[in-house]
Amino acid sequence: MANESDTGQEKTEQPTAKKLRDAKQKGQVPRSKELNSMTIMVFGALGLLFMGSHMIEHISIFMQEGFTISRADVYSRQAVFEKFGIATYEALTAIGPFMFLMTVIAIFTPLAIGGWSFSVESMAFKADRISPIAGFKRMFSAKGLMELVKAIAKFLVVSSVAVIFLWSKSDEFLGLGSQSLALALQHGAWLLGQSFLVVSSTLILIAAIDVPFQLWDHSQKLKMTLQEVRDELKDTEGKPEVRSKVRQVQQEMAQRRMMEAVPDADVIITNPTHYAVALKYDHDNMAAPVVLAMGKDLIALKIREIAAFHDIEIFEAPPLARALYANCKLDQEIPAHLYFAVAQILAFVFQLRIARDQGSEMPQRPDPHMPMDEEV
Question: What local confidence, expressed as pLDDT, does residue 197 receive?
Fold first, then answer.
């Protein structure tokens, strides 16, 4: 069941992008402690298995250098510093790669879900963190119940697997006492690494359950009411009257740009008074005529005025003008079913230009053929 806000409205809406962004800035991102624990344990076990012999070798050298010192070296400052330098180098060589691996895993594992997030606000003091009442609420919440279930599940799974594995390897563990010290140390380290890896691998199941739960729980916490979504939209885009004014200005700018393109048109097809569509066709660069401007009523009147001022041919074809206005978009080619009708008019316009320039006989005005379903 969705949570309810302080206003009593049910939180049914998914968080918006702004809500998620603000939550991340506050440090509210999904995190899984089980995923962190699992990766550190598993990679730690793998590190011990693959680096164990290397670590034991250098630790042995470290111990030899640290516990074998002659009487003369004790009274020599230079020898003491040399011994200290060798011991330090061997210690760093032994544990350095392993510690580097663990540091990388510890840093980058939390980024697997939620990504990188650093927030000073999340580190600020909050009274509810030390409040007993808030603490009890957290204990008996759905998340608290999930934590209890995870703890019990981890105990049962890990302990069961550990007992089964140790029982299966009991003969090898008991056999360490009959081996030489060096061989027993090597064999014991291998058994320890195996045990650690097997037991740690059981946490994969817990993490596989916890990660989806944390993502779901985070999404539930950030859910919004319809009123919160409306308020955020109002704050983001402004008041309705402001948005209306912005749209009006945008429309005026678009109309201004459209009117500036009218002088480039080859013909203006009109209704004759209600509709006007400005077309241009360049045989070399266009596959079909393109709509430069169109409008009705006052906009159509303005298009005709501009066309008349620039001596652009105005052709009255009411059915075609209505069809163009209904089926075309600005700066796009006309639809294929209107090609023939427009081609008749453009051919007439181009012939008319030639006749005027050469003083020859004027072409006959065409009656554009319209598809039956467009003659409305």
Answer: 85
Q: For the purposes of burial, counting CB atoms within 10 Å of the CB of 220, is it exposed (0-12), middle (13-18) or buried (19 or more)?
A: middle
Sheet holding 275-280, edge to edge: 290-296, 275-280, 267-270, 313-316
Q: Using alpha carbons, list the distances in angstroms from residue 98 to 29, 40, 194, 198.
A: 29, 11, 16, 19
What pLDDT does 273 receive?
A: 79
What dihedral do alpha carbons 334, 335, 340, 342 form, nearest 10°?
Answer: -20
* Other beta carbons within 10 Å of 194: 16
pTM above 0.90, yes or no: no
pLDDT category at 1 given cuts 50, 70, 90 is very low
pLDDT at 4: 55
Decide: 363 and 355 in contact? Cβ < 8 Å: yes
Is the confidence at residue 376, as pLDDT, over 50? no
Q: Which amino acid is at 370?
A: M
Other C-beta atoms closer than 10 Å to the C-beta of 37 total: 17
Mean pLDDT for the chain overall: 79
Largest CA distance in the chain: 127
